[in-house]
C-alpha cells in the first residue's frame, strides 16, 4: 500500500494515499478508507487543550467511564502503556455495538498529553474477520505518528 506524509499541527504521520482526508472543528483529521464490504474504516486524530494539572490517568479513567455508560455492549479487550520516544501514553482496544450501523465495532485508542495538548488517535472498523487486514494498516499509521517541534 502506498503511503504519504500528512502534517498536522504539532504532528506528522504516514497515511494510505488512497484514503479520503477530512476534518471538523472537533476532529483535527480523519482518514477514511475506501468502501469495502462490511463497512468503512477510519483513523481519527483529535487534539484538545488541557489544564496544566490534568494527568493522563485522569483522562484515561474519565473517558473509560464515559464509554462504559454510553457504548452498548462495551467490552475492554486490552489496555496499557504506549511509549513514543520519551513520552509515555496509554492505549486500549475495545468493542461495542453500534445501533446506528447495526454492527459490532472494534476501536483502538492511543492517548498522549504533550505540552498541555491531549492527542487521541482512534482507529475504527466493523469487527468482522474480512476487515482484519486493516489492523496492520492502522498499526503502521500509529507507529508513524511523530510529534513535531514548533509547528
Give your account of this protein's structure.
This protein has 151 residues and is an alpha+beta fold. It has a single domain (3-147), classed as Mog1/PsbP, alpha/beta/alpha sandwich (Protein Transport Mog1p, Chain A). The chain contains two helices and ten strands, in the order βββββαββββαβ. It has helices spanning 56-70, 134-144; strands at residues 3-8, 11-16, 20-22, 29-32, 42-49, 75-84, 87-98, 103-114, 117-126, 146-147. The chain has a seven-stranded antiparallel β-sheet with strand order 3-4-5-9-8-7-6, with helices on both faces. The chain has a three-stranded antiparallel β-sheet with strand order 1-2-10. A hairpin with a 2-residue loop joins strand 1 and strand 2 (11-16). The mean pLDDT is 94.
Q: Give a count of the beta strands, DSSP E runs of length 2 or more.
A: 10
Mean of all residue-level pLDDT scores: 94
CATH topology: Protein Transport Mog1p, Chain A
Shape: globular
Could you name the ranges where pLDDT drops below 50 across 5 or more consecutive residues?
none
Ends apart, CA distance between termini = 28 Å
CATH-derived architecture: 3-Layer(aba) Sandwich
Beta-strand content estimate:
over 45%
CATH class descriptor: Alpha Beta
Structural class: alpha+beta
Number of structural units classed as domains: 1
In which range does the helix fraction lie? 10-25%
The CATH H-level superfamily is Mog1/PsbP, alpha/beta/alpha sandwich
Order of helices and strands: EEEEEHEEEEHE
